[in-house]
Structure formats: structure tokens, C-alpha cells
Amino acid sequence: MTSTALTDAVRAVLTDPEVSEAPHRFGGLEFRLGRRELGHLHGERLADLPFPRRVRDELVAAGRAEPHHVLPDSGWVSRRVRGPEDVAEVAELFRMSYERATAARSRHDEDGAA
Question: Could you give the domains of the chain?
Fold first, then answer.
């Protein structure tokens, strides 16, 4: 796998051994927890991440992300990387996506055990 400042920053927050990386179907590098996509990188310039619409709206309103560059009316967000200062914010968005995925997995596991 290619190692760059952006991918290294994302990998640093996604240390769970169950997180996998693979080429994304539209180009770039995709990160998954099980079957759930956490987000993907298009080279060093763009990250796309899925969130519920409410969270997406909050991220866009706060200026932390933009509506997705292809699916602007979905819960997906895009974050452009214009310089080194944006790398930490992309890593934080991936951390948020990972935490949502692990919380959903925990709820699912609890429901299955009941």
C-alpha cells in the first residue's frame, strides 16, 4: 500500500485490526470496518465520508466539510485537502466515522444477545 502524509494520518486513527483497506471502486483508497465503509481517499486531495444527514448538516454548517462532490443531497461529506493543516481534520472525520461504526456494532451485538 502507498504511504503518504494523509494516508498515514488516517491509519493512525484507524488502528483497530478489524479495519481494512482496499482500492475504492471509483479510485482511491477505501477504509472499512467489517462491511461498513468508514470513508475513502481520492489521492492526497479529497476525502469522502458517510454520516447520517443530521451529522452531515452539522459538519457542513461548522465548515468542517462540504456536501459530497457527487451526491450533495446525501449524508456523505467531502473534505478537500489543500495543505498540511487539513490532514488533521480529515483524520478527525475518519475517527468520527469509526466511532459511529463501532457504536452501531455494539448496539447490534447487544440486540443480538438479548
Answer: 5-113 (3.90.1150.30)
